[in-house]
Amino acid sequence: MIRISSQQIFNGGINRLQGINSNLVDTQQQISTGKKVNKPSDDPVAAARILKLDQELKRVDTYERNANLADNRLKQEESALASSVDIIQRVRELTVQAGSGSLSTNDRESISAELKERLSQLANITNSRDASGEYIFSGFQGQTPAFAKDGAGDWQYQGDEGQRVLEIDDGVTVPISDHGKGIFVDVAKAVSVTDTSDGGTGDAAGYVSGLEVVAPKDLRDAFSGRAPDDLVVSVTDNAGVLEVTVTDPRNGATIPTEPVNAVAGEEFEVAGMKMTVNDAQDGDTYTLGISDRQSVFGTIENLIDGLEGIAKGDDRGNAEYDALIAESLTNLDNAQEKIILKQTELGGRLNAVESTTAFLEDSGLYTKEIRSQLQDVDYAEAISNLSFQSFVLQAAQQSFAQVSRMSLFDRL
């Protein structure tokens, strides 16, 4: 026979009431928080999975912020490049206008004045800043303006050649900047002529006119792999005939011309280029720059200097002016093409950022859905449980109150 003391009855009743009340409190907490797992003990397996899902959502949020930053930076650069193309196009229109033979001195001065304004606008665009105040075309030197005037008043690049990248997903990085040197400075220059007579002092009696690339493929083939990419044009008096020879400065080899025996005053072709040496004397030499580079700023600055400094009227002045216009147009086209190629590259990066952002959004939604299934409470079920647990608690309290008043003395 088992004897049950009054103390055991009270302890058992209290434990039972505490257990029911604890369940009731848990259900109330679920309803108030909207979560059915508020502590690991509620469901250890679900709690572990929820923790991993929370970590995944934090990872997605971080990458989404990076992707948004990359998108903003790239769009700002794209806008700056589009504005640069517009300015260069206007400069090209002015250059074509300057090539008209009917312009007066006042007309040239007017064109030069507008070119100076356009040059200043281009400098302002290349010195654009992002939302954090850093210059977008300065490479890693974000606190330094990309372009500034030197002591001579010419625009020079001040940044470095660094390119910033940002991770927008696991193992996925995207460049978010481009240095100004690669876009605005290292621009292919038109074939140019430099007077290098008398050991480079440049005092030739004659001049080169009509320089034109007539066979670009022949020019590329002739200078493929050359270093430096230059040719030397020399004038020699041979029994009263001023002969023109073209040589490779690396080894002194003669480059064939057409006609074979080129002479001063007559047009000839060499390596896909045609030209004429005028008013030459024995010993005149010129260097043809084939693959030189010139910044778009330098192109516009040279154009302005030429409009203000070259005097037209004689054959030499007219040839120099015509060469300036032709070279400027080619250089502007090269600069515009380089910027457009960069815009195309930016478009590819923006597409990559956009597709990655869409993937991150889908991944975040899927992760939240799984977490919701594990964590969010079913209010209808929880409220039903709360009502039932309240009823059970009330019944237990009443039962315990009745039992606690029972005593053996009542039976005596």
Please tell me about this protein's structure.
It is elongated and about 140 Å long. The chain contains 9 helices and 11 strands. The strands form 4 sheets. Strands 5-11-7-8 form a 4-stranded antiparallel β-sheet. It has a 3-stranded antiparallel β-sheet with strand order 6-10-9. Strands 1-2 form a two-stranded antiparallel ribbon. The chain has helices at residues 6-33, 44-98, 105-126, 180-185, 197-200, 216-222, 296-309, 315-375, 379-404; strands at 147-149, 155-157, 165-169, 172-175, 192-195, 207-213, 230-238, 241-247, 268-270, 273-278, 285-289. 23% of the residues are buried. The longest helix is centred in the last third of the chain and has 61 residues, at 315-375. It folds into 2 domains: 35-189 and 293-376, Up-down Bundle (f41 fragment of flagellin, N-terminal domain), CATH 1.20.1330; 194-288, no CATH class. It is α+β, with helices and mostly antiparallel strands and 412 residues long. Keywords: Bacterial flagellum, Cell projection, Cilium, Coiled coil, Flagellum, Secreted. InterPro entries: Flagell_FlgL (IPR013384), Flagellin (IPR001492), Flagellin_C (IPR046358), Flagellin_N (IPR001029). GO terms for molecular function: structural molecule activity.
